[in-house]
Design brief:
By secondary structure, the chain is an alpha+beta fold. The protein is built from seven helices and 19 strands. Strand 12 and strand 13 form a beta hairpin. Helix 3 runs antiparallel to helix 4, helix 5 runs antiparallel to helix 6 and helix 6 runs antiparallel to helix 7.
Length: 538
């Protein structure tokens, strides 16, 4: 069943004002938490170190008075005084260390899923961004050990539960417990938690309450116990396979004797908590199974380290969360622009937890330095080195970003130059081609005139000689005429050789022009055409 609400941008900004105050409380409150946690961790570390140096392993089957007041380690079987433990309602009894009654009732359960999204107005002139929250509620039936208050359900129609259990859970334990010959302190009784289903001859007639007895079945599952129909059912209409709301089931378990290992102070025939003299702390270690003193102390140190790191993480999260709340208005302002709000939010979260990591690490280092100077000095040195490396990495990344920007600009300039270079080369080649073409055309125009003028002059000279010869010596002999004709033939051959020389000059000029254009443009087909054109003109 969905349910939604819409919160405007202004409303979110107003609500963030209260968050700023909470953020300052979280931020400044995390410092004493972190400092106290480190002081506690140091004190526990010193106590365990002092205790490990003084522990003496003893036999659990005999008591040595010489160990009175000492921190002793022993492995033994835990047992009780064999008194009878009995459930007052169901009559179940045992001589084990504990007797536990667990009660569950079949009830309605409510689950919800909430989603938040940014919305824009669909009409009007307003551009204000709104935050829409949609919550979906679902309901199902299941067994539970606690009352599910249906009065707090979003939809209470057809989802009503009983307001209380017909009877509650119960835990009984022996008044005295022993580790072989040594009596254990009562504060260790709560550590006896290895429960198994009770092996018992179940009988409904042993139930003291007759009303409960009338509605009870012996459980066919869960290792034994009783199934009790709700007050609106009787034994005839109830079903274990298909329970209804209000039905109850009761199971029983117990803790049986087993081997344990203990480190405590010996006082006569009893064991008690040992108080350290040099450090402000105490030791009372208890573990199931056979463990050496070294193993017990190692486990205690691991437990101390786990608690220390859990509280460190809590302080770190409180500090980072406080900074996020303080800076939340910035993210809300940025949320007025679509997509920008998410980017700014992620940036604020990253910045907040980086700052929180720095201050948390500094607080931890100072705390250890005050309570344990040697270890504190090492931690502070490591923290300083890590901080310096982080700064160097950040600086290097910043420089790489700047260099990358400059390289990008250089690349863009080079690309621009590469794009302009072909145009410049093509324009230069075009100019060279035009000059060569002009030269060729000029040569083609001058060469025929020069050739024709030369031939005309030679022909005129020959004609003059022939005319002079005809006028001055008509009567000369044929032999002289033959000599003159031979001379004329020689002159004609000279003229032809001159023509040939002129043609070869034109060809060489064309070839040189063609070679120049080929070296500049590397387009031989164009110059082949020019050469053929010049030949045809010649």
């Amino acid at each position: 069943m969905p349910s939604g609400s819409v919160e405007s941008w202004i409303s979110r900004l107003q609500n963030s004002a209260a968050g700023i105050g909470i953020g300052f409380l979280l931020f400044f409150g995390s410092f004493p938490l972190l400092f106290w946690n480190e002081a506690r961790a140091v004190a526990r570390y010193d106590t365990l170190t002092e205790g490990a140096a003084q522990t003496v392993s003893v036999s659990s089957t005999s008591i040595d008075p010489a160990n009175d007041g000492k921190l002793v380690h022993l492995t033994a079987t835990i047992h009780s005084s064999d008194s009878d433990l009995r459930d007052p309602i169901f009559g179940v009894s045992t001589t084990d260390l504990t007797l536990n009654r667990e009660v569950e009732m079949y009830q309605w359960h409510e689950t919800s899923e909430t989603k938040t999204r940014e919305t824009q107005p669909t009409g009007g002139s307003s551009t204000e961004t709104r935050q829409e929250t949609i919550t979906t509620y679902k309901y199902h039936k299941a067994w539970s050990k606690v009352v599910q208050r249906s009065s707090l359900f979003h939809d209470r129609t057809d989802h009503e539960n009983p307001t209380s259990f017909p009877f509650g859970s119960l835990r009984l334990r022996q008044s005295r417990m022993f580790a072989d010959e040594f009596e254990l302190p009562e504060e260790l009784f709560s550590k006896v938690r290895w429960f198994t289903r009770l092996d018992y001859d179940w009988d409904v007639s042993e139930i003291a309450d007759l009303d409960v007895q009338d509605r009870s079945y012996i459980l066919r599952s869960s290792g034994g116990g009783y199934f009790i129909a709700g007050r609106f059912h009787n034994r005839a209409s109830a079903s274990q396979s298909y329970p209804t709301v209000g039905d109850t089931r009761v199971t029983f378990s117990s803790a049986k004797p087993r081997t344990i290992s203990v480190i405590a102070e010996q006082r006569g025939s009893t064991l008690q908590r040992w108080e350290a003299e040099e450090s402000d702390g105490s030791i009372l270690l208890f573990n199931r199974g056979s463990k050496t003193a070294e193993q017990l102390f190692a486990k205690a140190e691991a437990k101390n380290a786990a608690a220390t790191w859990a509280l460190r993480l809590l302080g770190f999260l409180l500090m980072g969360g406080g900074i996020c709340l303080i800076l939340e208005p910035i993210a809300i302002f940025a949320g007025a622009v679509p997509l920008l709000g998410d980017v700014v939010t992620y940036g604020i979260v990253g910045f907040a937890f980086i700052i929180a990591g720095f201050f948390a690490g500094l607080t931890i280092s100072v705390a250890w330095l005050l309570h344990h100077p040697t270890i504190g000095g090492i931690i502070l040195l490591v923290f300083t080195v890590i901080t310096w490396l982080a700064l160097q990495i950040g600086k290097s990344c910043s420089q790489q970003g700047e260099n990358g920007g400059e390289e990008k600009e250089d690349e863009e300039e080079e690309e621009g130059q590469d794009e302009e270079a072909p145009h410049q080369q093509n324009s230069k080649l075009d100019k060279d081609e035009e000059e060569v073409a002009v030269q060729i055309e000029g040569h083609d125009e001058e060469a025929p005139h020069q050739q024709n003028s030369t031939l005309d002059e030679d022909e005129e000279e020959i004609a003059v000689q022939i005319e002079g010869h005809d006028e001055e010596a008509p009567h000369q002999q044929n032999s002289k005429l033959d000599e003159e004709e031979e001379e004329i033939a020689v002159q004609i051959e000279d003229v032809e050789e001159k023509d040939k020389t002129v043609e070869e000059g034109q060809v060489s000029c064309l070839e040189s022009s063609s070679n120049q254009s080929e070296s500049k443009t590397k387009e031989p087909m164009f110059w082949d055409y020019l050469y053929d054109s010049s030949r045809s003109r010649g």
